[in-house]
Amino acid sequence: MCNNIPEVKLGIVAVSRDCFPIALSTQRRQNIVKAYQGELYECPVTVENEHDALKAVADVTAAGCNALVVFLGNFGPETPETLIAQKFDGPCMYVSAAEGDGDMINGRGDAYCGMLNCSYNLGMRHLKGYIPEYPVGTCEDICQMIAEFVPIARAIIGVKNLKIITFGPRPQDFFACNAPIKGLYELGVEIEENSELDLLVSYKAHAGDPRIPAICAEMAAEMGEGRYFPEMNERLAQFELTLLDWAEQHKGARKYVAFADKCWPAFPEAFGFEPCYVNSRLAARGIPVACEVDIYGALSEYIGACITNDAVTLLDINNSVPQYIYDEDIKGKFDCKLTDTFMGFHCGNTPECKMCESRAIKYQLIQHRLLEPEGSEPDFTRGTLEGDIAPGDITFYRLQCDSDGNLRSYVAEGQVLPVATRSFGGIGIFAIPEMGRFYRHVLIQKRYPHHGAVAFAHCGKAMFEVLKYLGVKDIAYNQPKSLPYPTENPWA
């Protein structure tokens, strides 16, 4: 991944209630640092009071830490430990020590109790702190919690420092991509909205850029002979450099960028190609480019890229799987009903590293029908990256701001099945447990748009924690049949 994804530098600060032995916190902190398999800066200040809290924050900041583990090695001081979250510019995880490494008279720390007061004090001060599902543990347990915190912290840092750059208004009749920007500001995300003409002017200014031949060679090597249009590579390379330069020149006060670009109907005729393949290449580098000016699609993709530190994509929740494909290739081979399956599709924006070997640059069939003369060879509608998406674990998710300005989200884990789609575009057959009910009582009932982000891993746990930390109150998931949705008819 490129430098568009944050690098987490994690520090650990131990806290100690002054009526408990400070050695409990200090020694337990040292044990964690020694056992943790990864980079973890050890703050030498064990916090007992407010002055210690300020010293600790100054120390970890000077060390370059951008995320913290606040460790209650004993009961912990309620005010100083929460002031750390107030003064530190980054996400803080609060965890506490389990008993068992000393006698239960002078070696009992009561951090189990202290965590309750810590949480209470964070709430009193309206401060955010990440608290794991069960935040009390041994040294080994705490190390596991820290490892699980890293991708969560990476996403939180990324969102806080993100600018979404858009080109063009949403296409006509694409109210599904309506994007009230109020929710972006609530999350701390910046936005820059531009015209397609701004992009076209910048693209033309990149004609003859001396970097184009190297990008062309890279594209040819990536796709392989016979899988691309040689005469189009220069145009595509010119466009890629246009976006990359725009991102660098327009970051402003932010560190990271994502794009949400208009790609039809005027784009291909004006630019001379479809932008899908270029979009896929940027997504592979950690710079999502959401189709059809889907601003919250771009934000969703970026969160997934931060959590997985890997390429992501944005797909239409597109069409049902035909009964004959299910009967021939799925039934009896995979543990899923027909209604658990659907096809996720987009014109060709999925990174080639997440597609089957048969992938190739082709043309957008739907746009060809619409924009080019009937019976003609495809010309400016070429540029899509098409083929079946590679099988494997996925998380399908979206963060959305509804028409009332409320943030809501969904997360569902599943798989891309190793089953041929027999169709066009960048497409795959997805299987998500109880998808039929999820489709009706979450996606339809809560009026989500047809775009969903895809992370190529099971990362629902981390995704849920990130969304919760960001303050999203409505986080839906694919509930098992034993847990009916509020709108589900019990007699259906």
Characterize the structure shown.
- The structure is a single chain.
- With 492 residues, this protein is of the alpha/beta class.
- It has two domains: 10-159, Rossmann fold; 162-477, no CATH class.
- Helix content is 37%, strand content 21%.
- The protein contains 16 helices and 18 strands.
- It has helices spanning 22-35, 50-62, 78-87, 111-124, 139-160, 182-187, 196-205, 212-223, 233-250, 267-271, 276-284, 295-308, 323-330, 365-371, 435-444, 460-469, and strands at 10-15, 41-42, 67-72, 92-97, 136-137, 162-167, 190-194, 256-261, 289-290, 312-319, 341-346, 360-363, 382-388, 392-401, 407-416, 426-431, 451-455, 474-477.
- The strands form three sheets. A six-stranded antiparallel β-barrel has the order 10-11-16-15-14-17, surrounded by four helices.
- Strand 6, helix 6 and strand 7 (190-194) form a beta-alpha-beta unit.
- It starts with 9 loop residues before the first strand and ends in a 15-residue tail after the last strand.
- The mean pLDDT is 95.
